Amino acid sequence: VPLRLSELGRESGPRLLQPDEDQRKAIAGALGIVALPALFAEVEAVPWHDGAEIRGTWSARVTYSCGLTLEPFDADLEGAFSVRAVPPSSPLAGAPAAGAELELDLEADDPPDEITDGVLPLGAYVVEDLSLAIDPFPRKPGVDFQPPPEPSEPSPFAALARLKNPDA
Fold first, then answer.
1. Residue 65 bridge partners (DSSP)
2. Rounded (10°) CA dihedral 41, 78, 33, 110
3. Res 110 pLDDT > 90
4. Distances (CA, A) of 156 to 29, 149, 152
5. To 10 degrees, the CA torsion angle through 67, 70, 76, 79?
6. pTM here?
7. Alpha helices (runs of H) in 19-155, residue ranges in sequence order
8. Are strands 15-17 and 51-65 parallel, antiparallel or unpaired?
9. Rounded to an integer, what distance in angstroms lies between the CA atom of residue 127 and that of residue 105?
10. For 152-166, how does the pLDDT look when each residue is reduced to its tens digit (9 = 90+)?
11. d(Cα 133, Cα 27) in Å, to the nearest integer?
């Protein structure tokens, strides 16, 4: 769902995003899940400096394949995100100069994304946040991993005891 940066501010209010069945199949394939029966998102883009701030909430029903039994099962997920984006010409955009020391502040906001061709891909932000919520090791509810019993190797002392007392 593209939104041109030049159209920002003309439309007010959030947009409801609801991909059709073919789009959900494509998203499920890209995310490595069995299916995506439902995905609903409400996304709003507002002006921010010379770019935009994109905020959204989403809910989804995903079909996983159990990592233990390989049986499919459904799970409900939901999330919220906020992303800032600016054009490449913005003073807020860009990576540090080559050879410059990179300083990381784990408490700071993420740097803004760069807008490509003046278009904000609203749906892509929803899918990106959904991908972060996907369980990488899904397990069907009620399924517990039971490790196989370890084979017990006879002790060398047991072999010596049998030599000493062959009837035992």
1. 72
2. 80
3. no
4. 54, 21, 12
5. 40
6. 0.79
7. 21-31, 122-133
8. unpaired
9. 26
10. 776 777 777 777 777
11. 14
CA separation for the pair 5, 127 (Å, rounded):
20
pLDDT tens track for 29-41 = 999 999 999 999 9
Q: Which long-range contacts (CB under 8 A, 24 or more apart) does 112-118 make?
A: 112/51, 112/83, 112/84, 112/85, 112/86, 113/83, 113/84, 113/85, 113/86, 114/85, 114/86, 114/87, 114/88, 115/5, 115/51, 115/52, 115/85, 115/86, 115/87, 115/88, 118/4, 118/5, 118/6, 118/87
In tens, the pLDDT along 5-54 reads: 888 877 668 999 999 999 999 999 999 999 999 999 999 999 998 899 99
pLDDT score for 146: 82
| Nearest-angstrom CA–CA distance, 132 and 127 | 9
Contacts of 65 (CB under 8 A, 6+ apart): 33, 34, 71, 72, 138
Residues 137 and 145 sit within 8 Å (Cβ to Cβ)? no
Q: What is the pLDDT of residues 85-102, one digit of tens each?
A: 999 888 887 666 667 777
Matching residue, tokens 């050879």: 99
CB 59 within 8 A of CB 131: no
